[in-house]
Design brief:
The structure is a homodimer of 147-residue chains. Chain A is mainly alpha-helical and 147 residues long. The first copy, chain A, has 6 helices and 2 strands. The interface between A and B is large, with 58 and 58 residues. Chain B binds a DNA duplex (30 and 30 nucleotides) through α3.
Chain lengths: 147, 147
DNA sequence: TCATATGTAATATATGGAGTTACATATATG
DNA sequence: CATATATGTAACTCCATATATTACATATGA
């Protein structure tokens, strides 16, 4: 399986949009994320559906952020992009006849569910505003370094 | 991505091997796991390398469990099958130039690492013996049901 | 009207586990 | 020693899915 980067990608883009004045086109966004305009539109569709962004067609169109970064958590973005599958490992058969396999599944599921719950909790605790603030720190630091 | 079932599969098989008297061939194991003998050999190679099982070629050959289930944790099996990638989601670029993406990566990595640490801890706490014991409970229960 | 955007379908690409075939090698058994 | 039976492994194919790309329909401001 290839890695699913939709959550990372959209967080990245939303912070850029917050920094921009005026709409950002799919083409501009694609350059920022080193990808393709269609990938942007496809993935942003989920964010538009939940009201985080708006898209406008035609001249002077593009994408606009509708909500403050303070109000958007990593978890919100995760949900908006369709709650991609979290784990690359898992059960071979979710409902096996073999009782041994059922016992194995129970242990695996228990471990995975606990890890998933912690991840979801972590995602819920961090807002995009906090990440943007971290960016500001990194930006200041990089300026200081270049003196 | 397709799901990686090597950990589940090998736990399943090791418990069956503990219940068997005498070696189990790759063909018999493949039937138990509803898969292919080559998949068995390929995946069991890692368990053999760390000394959990032994393989004997030729007549009356097959696979034998060398260690008690009490001494093998889920984590041991996870490591033996090559520590497969845990997450299906992740960073687009682990070392981006963009400072915004760096900040996003830092937050994603932090969340994923905490979840991974919990999962590893969970896997380390459960032995195959505990899972076998759970199987025994399920087996008793299924017998009781069929009365 | 036309240049510029998004919306979306269709297709190609890349990745990696799993499935399968083929064959080399090792080993009891007669 | 010949043979049936195992493992060991290389070399495929298959499959799922995110991503990349092309193509074209649709909408909109100048």
């Amino acid at each position: 399986m290839q890695l699913d980067g939709r959550l990372s990608r959209m967080m990245h883009l939303l912070i850029h949009m917050d920094r921009a004045n005026g709409p950002i086109t799919s083409g501009e966004a694609a350059e920022m994320l080193h990808t393709n305009p269609v990938v942007i539109r496809r993935t942003m569709a989920g964010l538009r559906d939940v009201g985080f962004v708006r898209s406008i067609k035609g001249h002077a169109g593009g994408w606009t952020l509708l909500k403050p970064l303070e109000s958007i958590s990593m978890l919100d973005v995760y949900k908006a992009v369709g709650q991609p599958r979290i784990f690359a490992i898992g059960l071979v058969d979710p409902a096996p006849d073999c009782l041994v396999e059922q016992a194995v599944n129970a242990s695996m599921t228990s471990a995975l569910e606990k890890a998933e719950a912690l991840l979801i909790a972590q995602l819920g605790e961090v807002t995009l505003a906090a990440i943007a603030k971290d960016f500001d720190r990194r930006f200041s630091a990089s300026c200081a370094n270049s003196l």
